[in-house]
Design a protein that fits this description.
single chain; six-stranded parallel β-sheet; alpha/beta; Rossmann fold
Length: 143
């Protein structure tokens, strides 16, 4: 059975809801979903999974959360995501999604293989947004 690590940070609960929906899609596809908050995630354990989903809302001037997520992503990239199937997701309130485009480019530069463009949801995810998260989970599990 494939093991999919879903690592996320959520300040308001929106990205957490997205992570939970993504985990549901992973399970529906017959894979194991390991859901963990960034502050509790260990890069070596995450990299041992068959695929990885990373979630973070846009923060500040459209950047990743700087206390937990940024150091985790830097460590993950340094340890090696080359060839690893990845999915990125997060919610936002302002801007145009630049944080996600920057994050996608960073993961590609580190050698990661994105299974789909980064999934963004404006504010609180509705049924359509949660459905897109579940679909992304299925795609990640199948990839």
């Amino acid at each position: 059975m494939k093991k999919i690590a879903i690592v996320y940070w959520s300040g308001t609960g929106n990205t957490r809801a997205m992570a939970e929906a993504l985990a549901g899609g992973v399970k529906d596809a017959g894979a194991e979903a390991v859901l963990v908050e960034t502050s509790q995630a260990k890069p070596d354990e995450v990299l041992a999974a068959d695929a990885i989903a990373l979630g973070c809302p846009a923060m500040g001037a459209e950047v990743l959360e700087e206390t937990d997520v940024e150091p985790f992503v830097a460590d993950l990239c340094a340890k090696g995501v080359s060839g690893k199937a990845l999915a990125l997701f997060g919610s936002y309130d302002w801007g145009d999604g630049q944080w996600m485009r920057d994050w996608e480019e960073r993961m590609k530069t580190a050698g990661g293989s994105l299974v789909a463009p980064g999934l963004t949801v404006h504010l609180e995810p509705d049924a359509v947004g949660l459905g897109a998260c579940a679909d992304l989970g299925k795609k990640l599990a199948a990839g």
